[in-house]
Amino acid sequence: MLFNTIDFAIFMPIIFLLYWFVFYKNIKTQNVFLVIASYFFYACWDWRFLGLIFLSSLVDYVVGLYLVKTDNKTKRKSLLLTSLIVNLGVLGFFKYYNFFLESFQEVFSLFGRSLESSTLHILLPVGISFYTFQTLSYTIDIYRKRLEPTSNVVSFFAFVSFFPQLVAGPIERASNLLPQFERKRHFNYAKSIDGLRLILLGLFKKMVIADNCALAVNEIFTYYPEYSGSTLFFGAFFFAFQIYGDFSGYSDIAIGSARLLGFDLMQNFNSPYLSRNLGEFWRRWHISLSTWFRDYVYIPLGGSQVSKTKWIRNIFIVFLLSGLWHGANWTFIIWGFIHALFFLPLIFKSSNAKFKDVADNNKLLPSIKTVFQIGSTFLVVLLAWVFFRAENITHAFLYLNGMFDMSLFSFPTVSRGLVLFLVVYMLFEWLQRDKKHLLEIDFIRSKPLRIAIYYCLVFIIFYFAGDTQPFIYFQF
Amino acid sequence: MKKLLSHISLFLIPILVIWILAEVFYRTVPNNYTYKHKQISNNTDIEVLILGDSHTFYGINPEFLSLKAYNLSNVSQTIYFDKLLFEKHIKQLSKLKYLILAVDYTTLSQADNTQEDIWRKYFYESQMDLDVPLIKWYNPKKYSLALTRKFDKTWQTCEEYHNKGTLIGCDANGWGNTYLSTVDSVEMNRLAHVVAKKHEDGSLDFSLNTERIQQMIDLCQSKNIQVLLVNMPSVPEYVSVLNAEKWQKIDAVCQLLETNNSNVTRIDLLEDKRFVLKDFQDADHLNADGAKKCSLVIDQYLNKL
User: Fold this and answer.
1) Does residue A186 have an active-site annotation?
2) What CATH number is attached to the domain comprising B203?
3) Interchain contact A189–B (C-beta under 8 A)
């Protein structure tokens, strides 16, 4: 069930009404209802993989209970290992089995040997990377004694399967989301209105920005040998907005839907294309994943509190793993490698933590320096997106080869309207850069004007929506 | 809570009104689907039935066939719907002697739910009274045609109705060609590439659609009806741009169907030299003159059978 379908437009109000009117009195029945609704939501994708969510939930619930009962280090480690093996084993099998097998076969063939093994036809369960990381964070936090396990099985199952963020995040931490299942939720008008705004904004980003960009991207990336360097540049430019609109739109709808049910999910995107360096970009792009890697990989490796050589190693490990998390393809690993590579100057200048404030705060227009910083960061990100979008590495290099020739300075054959539209959208993001989201417009005192803005967005969604495309991040 | 619900309700009222208006529009204004359904239901003495997509819809004019014919093809009509339509109407078409079925580049490989034309299946079900197994009972679009199309398309359709006064784009025989226009060779070359890109689905899996054609042939066999498999004319540039291996495979499937079934004759007009540039309105569609020529060629074949 996609968020931008009639099915969800029917599903969500039914859940909302039952949740607040029928199951409101008892928190336990409300949570049971959420588990059923979430499993139903997932079953609409593919009911056969419900067992995997159930298994992942059950293992981590039990491991959590046993972890708190013992102080024996060996026992605790073996319990953690059990959770890691089950969760990463399932993820590894479904997502990476064929990739590693094919890669090994290629390595063997380089040495003139053949590895006798055949790939399997494996379907990738939707959202497996997201809920696996979410449940893992629960076990790891308990192991580190940073979190008390829950004894409430219903709350835990609801936490793992919570439908708004089940298939594409945000990847929530148990410390943030689990307690919300264990306390009574009260309906809050302002929160619900904000949730509805986020849903509207998410639909706009997905259906108008992402789906319209997708048409151009599919054409240009499929037939790239036929296009000039400038058109290929805009192909990558459109993809940057396609993936941004697609994923941040999904996150907005997820966060908005959760708000309607009285939950607060973490912010997943914060105007990433206004970042002034890569460090800032990664604090603004897919925040729930980058903070996950920060907390569970980067910091345990020593983070930046080690020698520069080890710091660089840590950065490369995190980015390469992040690439691999996205998909079983070398293109994603190269994508991560490029980000790590362009991160190096920040390490040498120790400026990775720079720019934690809002750019040119209280100023209407950015300074030339800010424009240059934002532009150069965006160019690096755009370059890396070529690998993310390409079918394979050869395709990516050929695409870049076509992009960086003299035709880069020719006039591109792309929709000028779409380019203009994206530029205008970014101007609005700039104006709203100090807000949590673009539709946080309470500063507009006139209610009719606010309503007019909502209707305007509804009209744009209905009239200018592109052909429906699947959410990109569902494949991860 | 009451405040929220009342505000949402008020906000949604204009959207609901537009939805209802769109629904009324689709349900009341006649279009190709409603018109063809009415025509085929009332004409039980048809001797030649033409099925297929836009190539036959625009390309075969029943007026130039000696026998009484009806063109039941439609834009983007797949074999899936050809079969459903044929099975629905065969019982009443007691005089039917020939079934003309187009086999083009996309015919055998096309999926049942292509994104571009996914809305059409609801119109077939609702307006041509077909039972479409692809549509599940719990699909909301089954119950509302306004939900099946994007708003901009609905708006364009309303504009078309406003400007032309009708949405029916075919004549009483079901033929849909009102175009006499043609294009020069440079433009045709460009169109050939554009259309070829659009038609290239990358699939060489013909099994499902071939099986459907075979089932239709078997049904015809049992009713003593001759089947004409027609490869409709296209401009040479269009043919050459597309996958040669796929063309060969299409050719092989057509030959096999003809060889294995005594009631099947195949007419290959794909690169027939009788069709020249001025017969086409674009790379793969005949114009009115081309349709006349094509219909007369087919008529000759029918007379020989």
Assistant:
1) no
2) 3.40.50.1110
3) yes
Q: Is residue B5 part of a domain?
A: no
Domain annotation covers residue B72: yes
Chain B: give the shortest CA distance to residue A329, in Å.
22
pLDDT in tens, chain A (476 residues): 888 888 899 999 999 999 999 998 889 999 999 999 999 999 988 888 888 899 989 999 999 999 988 888 889 999 999 999 998 888 888 777 777 777 767 777 767 766 666 655 666 677 888 889 999 999 999 999 888 999 899 999 999 999 999 888 799 999 999 999 999 898 999 999 999 999 999 999 999 999 999 999 998 998 899 899 999 999 999 999 999 999 999 999 999 999 999 999 999 999 999 999 999 999 999 999 999 999 999 999 998 888 888 989 999 999 999 998 887 788 999 999 999 999 988 888 877 778 778 888 888 888 899 999 999 999 999 999 999 999 889 999 999 999 998 888 888 888 899 999 999 999 999 999 889 899 999 899 899 999 999 999 999 999 888 877 777 776 66
Q: CB-CB: which of A7, A20, A223 is closest to B197? A: A223
Which residue out of A2, A6, A200 would a mutagenesis test of the B interface target, given it has the greatest number of B Cβ atoms within 10 Å?
A: A6
CB contact under 8 A, B11 and A467: no
Number of domains in chain B: 1
- Å from A453 to nearest chain B CA? 12
Residues 6+ apart with CB under 8 A from A385: A236, A239, A240, A243, A335
Please give the Cα distance from A456 to B194 (Å, whole number).
Answer: 34
Q: Do A463 and B151 touch (CB under 8 A)?
A: yes
What backbone torsions phi and psi does residue A70 show, to the nearest 5 degrees?
-130, 145
Domain hosting residue B115, numbered range: 30-134+166-304
Domain assignment present for B122: yes
Whether residue A437 contacts residue A252, with contact meaning beta carbons closer than 8 Å, is answered with: yes
Within a domain: residue B4? no
pTM for the complete prediction?
Answer: 0.86
Q: Edge to edge, what strands does the sheet with B98-102 contain?
A: B69-71, B48-51, B98-102, B226-231, B264-268
Treating both helix axes as pointing N-terminal to C-terminal, what angle do A73-91 and A50-69 enclose, rounded to 10 degrees? 170
